[in-house]
Amino acid sequence: MRSIARSLGLGSAAMALTALTALAWPGTAGATPSAAAAPATTASLYTPSALVLGVTAGDDARRGTVLRAVTLVCAPAPGGTHPDPVGACAELREHGARLDALTAPAADTACTREWNPMTVTADGVWDGRRLSYAHTFGNACGLRSTAGVLFDF
């Protein structure tokens, strides 16, 4: 019984506060807070495409040492901290979420067989869908020899 009386008291106080707020809010006299809010609309006409790209020393991006990271935004216009956002966005549009094509070595590549792994990652949203990608190269030469510019930073 005691808790019912206590909750009624708090409920009455909350209703009184709501009524005072509605009356005192400038420009909304008599209007409820939901009626005064702006209607929900789509803020843009493009599909979100923004990624965080990283290079990590080691064969596991979660346990390795992050050496470099950049942001890449492709919509509405290329941007971010990537050194060549226009080229990187063009590659992504051409290949979509199939990033293995962008980590393939160039045709004239010659690297040693030294095992000093480097892992590249891409995390974010591409064409409105979640994207999480990781690829491990045997060494820095393998990373530098990719044909594209997406991971060239």
Walkthrough of the structure:
The structure is a single chain. The protein is an alpha+beta fold. The chain folds into two domains: 2-36; 50-144, Subtilisin Inhibitor (2-Layer Sandwich), CATH 3.30.350. The protein has four helices and five strands. Strands 3-2-1-4-5 form a five-stranded antiparallel beta sheet. A hairpin with a 7-residue loop joins β1 and β2. The longest helix has 23 residues, at 2-24. The chain starts with a helix and ends in a 9-residue tail after the last helix. The model is unreliable at 1-41 (pLDDT under 50).
**CATH homologous superfamily designation of the largest domain:** Subtilisin inhibitor-like
- Overall 3D geometry? globular
Order of helices and strands: HHEEEHEEH
The CATH class of the largest domain is identified as Alpha Beta
The parts where pLDDT drops under 50 for at least 5 residues are 1-41
Distance between the termini: 68 Å
Q: What does the largest sheet look like?
A: 5 strands, antiparallel
Q: Beta-sheet strand percentage?
A: 15-25%
Cα gyration radius (Å): 26 Å
CATH topology of the largest domain: Subtilisin Inhibitor
